[in-house]
Structures are given as structure tokens and as C-alpha cells.
Amino acid sequence: MTGSESNKAPVAEVQNLSVNEAKTSQKQNVTPWDVEGAVVDGKPQPINYNDLIEKFGTRRIDAELLERFEKLTGQRPHKLLRRGVIFSHRDFEKILDRYEQKKPFYLYTGRGPSSGNMHIGHMLPLTFCKWLQDVFDVPLVIQLTDDEKFLFKPKLTLDQVYEYSAKAVRELAALGFKPEKTFIFSNMDYMGGAFYRNILAVSRSITFNTAKATFGFDMSSPIGRIHFPSIQIAPALCSSFPQIFGNRKDIPCLIPCAIDQDPYFRLARDVMQPLKHKKPALLHSKFLPALQGSTTKMSASLDSTAIYMNDTPAQIKNKINRYAFSGGQTSLEEHRKYGGDPDVDVAYQYLTYFLDDDEEIVALAEGYRKGEISTGEMKARCIKVLQEFIGEVQERSKTVSDQLLKDLRDPDYPRKFATIEKK
Fold first, then answer.
1. Structure confidence at residue 19 (pLDDT)
2. Which of 1, 98, 164, 312 suits a disulfide with 113, CB 3.0-4.6 Å?
């Protein structure tokens, strides 16, 4: 992609609300902080991912790219790739080139802790990152953006967000991340040294006009928010982690993230060449819908929209049965006669994210459309899958030691990779 990528698709354009005189229509709102589908004639619409690909200037992940991945790695693509949940990318083919040529790269992802526990939507990019790390055998850095949550969530205190980031490390450790391959850092703790020098270099490379056009900032925006993109971009420069990469500047990263985070890294790709670093590559995921439907994403701030990683089996069952939007008919008799729509049914949507068996996924959709599978049966299957997934993580979290938590956050823990040590 040539030219300034940040000018390809300003978020301000995507988020700009356009309400007609009757106030029954508006454009979809997709920013790093808010996600809402469009409203047409008073009816909320699902997130239009084709529109985001066009506006953000990304590329769709196609069968050819997945075939190349499988040929190079010997691994079947992850279910999120196979099912189009990871649907868009920037320069993923260049990462595959480096893997084929045995040249180094690393993974970078983040977690913004705005509550005491993650929900299942937070877990998706993290479990996918763990899978990528295992397939590629590369370093992973995980940024805990506690500072961002303080700046963008006025009700949260500094002590709260710092406590939340500490809790997040335990949940991450329960996914199986190991300190010899993974560095997890709080921005509040890691600020300084090479990291802060890169933040300064990035911040001087981005004008207020560019930030305003990209994120929709205005003259009333707190200056901390305007500066924050520099902090989120800095981990995409390998020299921010000299303990892992030494003095090298020629190692790019691959960033798996939800599509709403892309604006940060469009800016990052614009400033990398002047800073003599490699552009980051990205893999974009769709949003896990809120329990109420696919017009918005699951939110940690709204309990009734989310399934949390500390929810009990009874709570999971109650939330799915009570809140999960149904694609079925108003009565069982009508459902058996006319069938349901799995494309809007939240229980089925969750199964496409968490159930491994492709054949069962197809059978569930077909049976639901024919009315052979009821809404209650679909919800019951979803409840069982989520209870098993969350229960396994909860059990593993009990075995996480304080030493492991310390090692994961230690920038000087030995993380040695042969491809990095040699030019």
C-alpha cells in the first residue's frame, strides 16, 4: 500500500453520525472506543465489515492466503481464520515471506483492563495469539493499556486501572503464555528507557491534524488522549524491547487485533520509515457480539452484555437463556414450521467462535434453518461449550504461581531466539 495509510480511512469519517430529520437513520460507529452498527429506518443493523475493509483500506483474507499459510507451517488454519472471524489483514503475506526465509518477527497484542475480569470477547485475540506463537515460535509482547483506560474512562481511578492490569496478568498466564517467549507489561510500569524514547519519536512524527482526522479528536479532548496513540504505537518498534531484540531495528511485528484498533496502526505504518523501522503487519478480527445482538460488541462495562471469565456455570446459563438474542420464531410451533436464522442468533454466533468442530457448526446452522433445532437447544449447546471453556481457564488460573506472574512481567527475563541473535 502506498501513500499515507492514515489518510485512506479517517475514523472520524466512519464514526460520523448522519441522522435524518426523523432521526431514524445513522451511520455505523466504529472507533477504538465505541462500536455500534448503523440504524436504517429505525432498525439497528449488524456491523458491516465489508464497509470497514473499504473505508480502512485493508485486504480480505482469502483462500489463497490460507492455503499458503497451511503449506508453509504444516498447520491447519485456526478456526477463527477458517470461519472468517479473522477476516482482514495488512501485509500478512510479508510475515509469511519472513517465516519462509527464517527471518525474525514478533507478535504484539494488548489488553485494556477496564474492569476486574476479562470477558470472553477479550479472550479471542489472546487465545489466537497463543496459537500463532506456538505455530511460529516467536516472541510475543502484550501491552496492558492501563493508562488508556484511565484517560478514556473518567470514572476509573489510577489505582483501579493498575489493579485491573495486575489481575489481567493472571488470566493471561492461565492461557499458557510462558515467560521465555512472552513479555507482559503495564504502561505505567514500563514507561521509560527505550520504550519512552520511541514514544517521543513517534509523538513528534504525528501532527494534531493527523490525529484529529484519524480519531475524531476535537479541542475539548484531554491532551492525554491525543498523546496516547504514540504509546500504543511504540511497541510496534522492536527497539522498544532491547532486552529481547538488542539494538536491531529491522524486525517487524504482526499484530492480531479487532478491526477497531486498526487506526492506531495505520498511523504506525506511516511513521515507521522515517523512524527506520519495519511496518507492522496486522490481522483483524470481527467483534464478538453483545448478548443482545450483532449491532454492537460485548462490553466489560455492561454486565448484561457480557459473559465474564469469572462467571459461574449458573451465571453463564442464566445470561445465555435470559439475554442472548434469538434468531428463532416467536413460538416453537412456528419455529418448527419456518425455521430460524443462525446468522443473527447470538448463541449460534458464540459457537462459531468457540466450538472447534466444523461439521457440527454446519449441522447446527442447517438444523436451525430447517426448524429441526430449537432456540432452546441452540442455547443449551452454547452454554455447555462456554461453561467448559471458562471452567478450564478458571482451573488453570488456580495453578498460576506468583513467580510465574513476576517472570512474565520481568523485562530482563531471558528470552532467546536464534533467528534474532543472528543477522
1. 35
2. 164
Residues 401, 170: Cα–Cα separation, whole Å: 9
Q: Which regions of the chain are under pLDDT 50? A: 1-2, 11-23
Pick from 30, 115, 81: nearest CA to 307: 115
Contact in structure between 235 and 143 (CB atoms under 8 Å): yes
Instruction: Cell numbers for 247, please give them.
Output: 539494538
- Which residue, 98, 93, 124, 95, is CA-closest to 111? 124
Q: Determine contact, residues 63/47, Cβ cutoff 8 Å.
A: no
55-86 confidence digits (pLDDT tens): 999 999 999 999 999 999 999 999 999 999 99
In this structure, the number of other CB atoms found within 10 A of the CB of residue 311 comes to: 21
- H or E segment to which residue 90 belongs: strand 86-90
Residue 310 carries which side chain, given as an amino acid letter?
N
User: For the chain, how many helices (H) and strands (E)?
Assistant: 21, 13
Cα distance between residue 343 and residue 264, in whole Å? 30
- For residue 420, the model assigns a pLDDT of 82
Q: Which residues of 238-269 are buried (b: 16+ CB within 10 A; e: fewer)?
A: bbbbeebbeeeeebbbbbbbbbbbbbbbbbbb
